[in-house]
Design goal:
Aspartate Aminotransferase, domain 1, alpha/beta, 2 domains, seven-stranded mixed sheet, three-stranded antiparallel sheet, Aspartate Aminotransferase, domain 2, single chain, 14% strand
Length: 386
């Protein structure tokens, strides 16, 4: 079997720690995990303990002030829908950015149809946010700022400390999409003044697909119930409970997946988040530095020296569509990348790449220096072939 050089980790990390697979296997095979909070027998209590331990690990990773403020969902898209539709009102004005993924944009567009007003912070030629836009777009009815921590297209990282301070100064809610940064970059919700953090488990946290969550910060928030059903308690009440974490956990939790996510967080703890961040920066800049002078290459994003960024490098090669270049990389070199629009239409409009898209390389801690060098050589060969 031909070795696959996998550089599509912004979509999902393909290689996981062995302990993640083992945790999922044992969660099923050992037949010891029941439905959490649905009984007082051993199997139910085992599942409850597993989810509560994972809340504590998640709270520690993201600086959540109270582990009870961590709720688990199916993914970041589910989290964002629950938060945006449960928190924002038709009378609100929302500031967001052109770097957002459709997981943010489409729920906001649905809210816009109901009367919610939207404004978009722009970017410069390198895709860096125009921070002066936040102040310029501020209105008396502005209620929240919604920002992704790291762009899934450029890898540029938003200055959350700066935006969070702006939000506190003007008493705005600060909602962050951490899909690309969870397990990759340091996040402290209290320090950064984040009110709501939405994350997925299957990318930088190395958990299984079908895992994610919502973390609430240190300010009390009132949500409209968006998704309701069984809660395991208050069964005779017509209205679903509003206490965290039950508020976002209607129905049976994906306990088997959460067992794998817990092992993924253990891997990050054992390796050290700072060490992972440093290694990913090394891989990203090594790749960038080898390809930046290839004739015909156009790179997107800011690669200023010592700048923190997500492990993403997006590019185009003159004479190639993003789809054709991606196909050639896979067919000729067994390199897996992501072409197209990456579910982030506004940033492509900003760069003028809405028709051709881009080819995105994205790395994980399981990629090696040798793989990076191989990919750079492949691009150079394709450029020379024309």
């Amino acid at each position: 079997m031909t070795e696959l050089y996998y550089f599509d980790n912004s979509a999902t990390t393909l290689k996981k720690p062995a302990a993640v697979a083992e945790a999922v296997y044992h969660a099923i095979a050992d037949a010891q995990l029941g439905n959490p909070a649905r009984g007082s027998h051993t199997a139910s209590l085992n599942a409850l303990r597993l989810t509560e331990r994972l809340r504590q690990k998640t709270a520690a990773l993201f600086g959540v002030p109270d582990a009870a403020n961590v709720a688990f969902t199916a993914n970041a898209t589910a989290s964002l829908n629950l938060v945006l539709k449960g928190l924002l009102k038709p009378t609100d004005h929302i500031i967001t950015t052109v770097t957002e993924h459709n997981a943010v944009l489409r729920p906001l567009y649905q809210l816009e149809e109901q009367g919610t007003a939207l404004s978009f912070v722009g970017v410069d030629e390198f895709g860096t946010l125009l921070y002066s836009d936040f102040e310029r777009l501020l209105r008396p009815d502005t209620r929240a700022v919604v920002v992704n921590h790291a762009s899934n297209v450029t890898g540029n990282v938003a200055d959350l400390e700066r935006i969070g301070s702006f939000c506190r100064e003007h008493d705005l809610l600060f909602i962050v999409d951490a899909s690309q940064s969870a397990g990759v970059l340091d996040i402290d919700m209290v320090k950064l003044h984040i009110d709501v953090l939405c994350f997925t488990g299957h990318k930088g946290l190395y958990g299984p697909q079908g895992t994610g969550g919502i973390c609430l910060g240190d300010r009390p928030l009132e949500f409209v119930r968006v998704f309701t059903g069984g809660s395991g308690f208050h069964s005779f009440d017509k209205q679903y409970p509003t206490e965290m974490p039950t508020l976002f956990e209607a129905g049976t939790q994906n306990v088997h997946g959460l067992a794998g996510l817990s092992a993924g967080l253990d891997y990050i703890s054992q390796k050290g988040l700072a060490a992972i961040t440093s290694y990913l920066q090394e891989l990203t800049f090594r790749f960038h530095d080898q390809i930046k002078n290839i004739p015909g290459i156009t790179l997107y994003g800011s690669f200023a020296e010592n700048m923190e960024r997500a492990p993403v490098v997006s590019l185009n090669l003159e004479g190639w569509s993003s789809g054709d270049l991606s196909d050639a990389l896979f067919m000729d070199y067994s390199i897996a990348v992501r072409p197209g629009a990456h579910c982030a239409p506004l940033i492509h409009q900003a760069f003028g790449t809405e028709k051709n898209g881009m080819v995105r390389f994205s790395f994980s801690s399981f990629n090696t220096v040798e793989e990076i060098d191989y990919a750079a050589k492949a691009l150079r060969s394709l450029a020379e072939e024309g």
